[in-house]
């Protein structure tokens, strides 16, 4: 019992410490440094923290691999576009509307999971992305294939530039996404999702409400992905289907948790920080084409060498060390 | 706290195969009832009908709790667990990559059981002390006998009124079989648990059962009101005792 308590305490310290560090770094960036590159790069990394944490709720905890992150992300963006065109809605309303719409899309995906499991579920999520992209491509209201350009409104006080405001919003979103993912992991929902991942039929038999839990996971995961996509329009000042539905979002959202470790909330954060930063650095130092290749190479490397990600590696080393310690203690 | 399980004329099958043909039996509060039969006679199918995994094509299954009759046919596994029926499935069906403690918690999704979570956990650990020592171990890394204990304890975590046990002896050594079955008997004697147990192992089963049914080719071939009748029945002798 005391062991559990102390590890929970460590977990809390990491989470609270991480939040404080992120907020301090964000404030420093917003007030002091003001280099556009660092700003943009951090924005993208934060966006990936949201996407990876959201993906992990369904893919990591419950074992339902979603290949359609881009569908949720882009649908979030296009919902925001709709809210701007229709109601001239402020950013916060855009984000809430996007989260609601993609939450409903998540519910749909969750109902698919009733009939399809494993790889078949994943294929269905790819199909959802393709269908949605085709619909947007052929809808003039959303600009069709050539996309739409949007003017940014004035930033809301106390922010002096819209960039800073978007960045601040993304910081809050990343912290919320990680907090939600962490809450789910440690609650009854997470325990049930792990049971579904391990043996869905057995879970059903012992009275775990499998459908309800899967729907919670798909809705929360989808809503977070959509929320991450909502600021896209204002961030880029432009939205267009091919880049919004880019496969890069789907692959990264899946690669980051796998590289970091899917068993815990911190895995996707580690993966997003690592892979996101490497991608950003490679984009400016070598080439922007290469960063897709890097995701692929790293993913293959981790799947082969460390199937449980960085978290799994750390855990393995720890148990090895403690086993060594025990052996020493025994010898004395 | 009156409880009664009534099964009458239940028929079920898989596609064209008829596994149960008009099975009727009942279990009353505080009894340990044995459902005997060799492989392929429909024991597990009947258990699956009781837990909502297989839907009977005919017949009635009712559970009466304190005078309120619940029809179990058409209810899902989760609803049936919520009524207070827990099953220890054949082959244990644990979550191998989760710890023993997590496995136990997963048995406690029943809203009624969550209120007494720590009490139930204490009860499970008191019944199976080894599980307390091994609470952080992955369930898949335990021995067969210990896994069977986890499976029984997981069922107990839902604070059931009726415990269904499907072939607890599968894959266990003779010593472990008698220990496991003895534990089930103890649950009945000490804690008044109502038990319906499907089992092939006749000798071990009659040590703890009050009465029993023999299932042959999907039909109840023999019903006894006490253990002596079972032991002295000619057909049972032919089937089990090699006489």
Counted up, domains of chain A total 1
* CA radius of gyration of chain B: 17 Å
Distance between the termini of chain B: 42 Å
Strand order of the largest sheet of chain B: 6-7-8-3-9-10
Helix content of chain B: 25-40%
Largest sheet of chain B: 6 strands, mixed
The CATH topology of chain A is given as ABC transporter involved in vitamin B12 uptake, BtuC
Order of helices and strands of chain A: HHHHHEHHHHEHHHHH
Fraction of residues in H or I helices of chain A: over 70%
**Low-confidence segments of chain A:** 1-7
Structural write-up:
The complex is a heterodimer of chains A (332) and B (243). Chain A is mostly helical and 332 residues long. Chain A has a single domain, classed as ABC transporter involved in vitamin B12 uptake, BtuC. Chain A has 14 helices and two strands; from the N terminus they run H-H-H-H-H-E-H-H-H-H-E-H-H-H-H-H. In chain B, the strands form two sheets. Chain B has a six-stranded mixed β-sheet with strand order 6-7-8-3-9-10, with helices on both faces. A four-stranded antiparallel β-sheet of chain B has the order 2-1-4-5, covered by helices on one side. In chain B, helix 3 packs parallel to helix 7. Chain B is globular. The mean pLDDT of chain B is 92. At the A-B interface, helix 7 of A face helix 2 and helix 3 of B.
In brief:
The complex is a heterodimer of chains A (332) and B (243). Chain A has helices spanning 2-33, 36-61, 69-87, 91-115, 118-137, 162-186, 188-205, 210-229, 232-236, 241-244, 247-260, 266-285, 290-305, 309-331; strands at residues 148-149, 238-239. Chain A has 332 residues and is mostly helical.
């Amino acid at each position: 019992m005391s062991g559990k308590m102390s590890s929970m305490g460590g977990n809390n310290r990491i989470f609270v410490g991480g939040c404080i560090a992120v907020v301090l770094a964000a404030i420093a960036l917003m007030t002091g440094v003001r280099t556009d590159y660092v700003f943009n790069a951090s924005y993208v990394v934060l966006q990936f923290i949201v996407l990876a944490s959201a993906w992990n709720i369904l893919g990591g905890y419950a074992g339902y691999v979603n290949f359609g992150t881009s569908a949720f992300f882009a649908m979030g963006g296009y919902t925001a576009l709709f809210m701007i065109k229709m109601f001239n809605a402020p950013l916060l309303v855009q984000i809430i509307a996007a989260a609601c719409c993609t939450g409903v899309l998540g519910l749909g995906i969750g109902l698919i999971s009733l009939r399809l499991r494993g790889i078949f579920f994943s294929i269905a999520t790819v199909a959802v992305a393709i269908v949605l992209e085709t619909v947007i491509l052929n809808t003039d209201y959303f600009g069709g294939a050539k996309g739409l350009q949007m003017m940014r409104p004035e930033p809301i006080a106390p922010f002096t530039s819209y960039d800073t405001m978007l960045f601040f919003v993304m910081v809050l979103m990343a912290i919320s996404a990680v907090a939600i993912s962490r809450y789910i992991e440690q609650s009854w929902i997470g325990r049930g999702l792990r049971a579904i991942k391990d043996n869905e039929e057995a879970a059903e038999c012992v009275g775990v409400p499998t459908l309800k839990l899967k729907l919670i996971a798909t809705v929360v995961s989808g809503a977070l992905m959509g929320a991450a996509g909502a600021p896209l329009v204002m961030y880029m000042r432009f939205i267009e289907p091919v880049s919004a539905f880019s496969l890069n979002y789907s692959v990264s959202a899946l690669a980051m948790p796998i590289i970091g470790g899917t068993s815990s909330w911190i895995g996707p954060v580690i993966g997003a920080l690592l892979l996101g930063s490497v991608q950003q650095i490679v984009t400016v130092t070598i080439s922007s084409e290469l960063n897709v290749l890097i995701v692929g190479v790293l993913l293959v490397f981790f799947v082969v060498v460390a199937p449980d990600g960085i978290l799994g590696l750390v855990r393995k080393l720890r148990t090895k060390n403690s086993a060594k310690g025990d052996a020493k203690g025994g010898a004395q | 706290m009156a409880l009664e399980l009534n099964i009458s004329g239940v028929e079920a099958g898989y596609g064209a195969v008829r596994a149960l043909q008009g099975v009727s039996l009942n279990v009353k509060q505080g009894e340990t009832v044995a459902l005997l039969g060799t492989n392929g006679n429909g024991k597990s199918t009947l258990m699956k009908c009781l837990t909502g995994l297989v839907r009977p094509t005919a017949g009635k299954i009712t559970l009466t709790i304190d005078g309120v009759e619940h029809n179990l046919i058409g209810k899902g596994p989760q609803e049936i667990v919520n009524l207070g029926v827990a099953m220890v499935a054949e082959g244990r069906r644990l979550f191998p990559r989760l710890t023993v403690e997590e496995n136990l918690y997963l048995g406690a999704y029943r809203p009624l059981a969550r209120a007494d979570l720590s009490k139930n956990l204490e009860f499970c650990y008191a019944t199976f002390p080894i599980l307390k020592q091994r609470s952080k171990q992955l369930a898949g890394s335990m021995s067969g006998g210990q896994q069977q204990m986890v499976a029984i304890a997981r069922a107990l975590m839902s604070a059931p009124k009726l415990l269904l046990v499907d072939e607890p002896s599968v894959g266990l050594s003779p010593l472990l079989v008698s220990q496991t079955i003895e534990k089930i008997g103890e649950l009945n004697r000490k804690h008044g648990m109502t038990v319906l147990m499907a089992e092939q192992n006749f000798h071990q089963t009659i040590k703890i059962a009050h009465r029993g049914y023999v299932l042959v080719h999907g039909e109840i071939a023999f019903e006894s009101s006490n253990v002596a009748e079972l032991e002295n029945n000619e057909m049972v002798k032919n089937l089990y005792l090699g006489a």
